[in-house]
Amino acid sequence: MTLHHVVVGVDGSLISVRALDWATDEASRRGVELVVVYAVPDSDEAGPVLASAVTRVRARHPELSVVTKDAVGGPVRTLVRESEGADLTVVGTRGMGGIAGLLFGSVSLRLAAQVHSPLLVVRGDHRCDDGRPVLLGLEGDRDEVTALYAFQEAERRAVPLHVLHPWTHRHVTPELPSLAPAMGPGQEQLAQQGRAEGSVPGFGLARLSERHPGIQVESRTVRTGPAQALLEATRDCAVVVVGAHHRTPRFGPRLSPVAHTLLHRSHCPS
After folding, report:
1. Per-residue pLDDT for 37 more than 90?
2. What is the rounded distance in angstroms from the CA atom of residue 225 to the CA atom of residue 231?
């Protein structure tokens, strides 16, 4: 296998065909090999589905190198294993609470929590490349790895990058109202905090903007309902990029609440 490659899981369903189309375009955009994987109870079942997948890939991008793999076993374990060393892993889901074929039930959640590469979850009939911006959802200024990936994604697609960042309200000691028009210490502290929080996205993204001068960046701070605001913003974007993993000492990797919401309800691939 080549050093750089995109992995896609297929199962013959319509949504997996859409995921295959996305993965084909992503591999072509990156100039890397495409690995098509089918996890089945019996390897004899995989032949027709994989052959059909190769035919579709070559019709879409004849120059693309394609490798097929059938694996006897469950889709989560198979795709987690195949994601090691991949540039991207792509799967399909109906979204809005309905999971199809490869991602039946809680499989998508378990895969997102364990995958070793960036994961692209394709839903519905969202078009693969229509010039819409990339959306970045930041939970804090420290998530530079996620931000860097979003910049690279916008650069690959030659589209703007939209950034949503939550405003975090920290406790300020209450004080008696002042009769003077000037703000008291508590109000001034809150105002300074608000200005600092509002500047976080710009400050955190400044270095990446310098490294990617061709990317137009639009940043917005959300004070209430960041998950809902991010979800609404996915209506007008090509893809949404968020950091997925929260690690706990006892239970290992778990999805962040925002990633969990987007996985089920995002209007664009995430």
Report:
1. yes
2. 10
Nearest to 88 by CA among 144, 4, 145: 4
DSSP codes, 53-90: HHHHHHHH-TT--EEEEEEES-HHHHHHHHHTT-SEEE
Q: Is residue 41 within 8 Å of 72, Cβ to Cβ?
A: yes
Do residues 107 and 76 lie in contact, with contact meaning Cβ atoms separated by under 8 Å?
Answer: yes
On whether the CB atoms of residues 94 and 123 are closer than 8 A, the answer is: yes
pTM reported for the whole predicted model:
0.78
- What distance in Å separates the CA atoms of residue 179 and residue 169, rounded to the nearest whole number? 25
Residues in the chain: 270
- Condensed to tens digits (0 to 9), the pLDDT of residues 115-153 reads 899 999 887 666 666 789 999 988 766 678 889 999 999
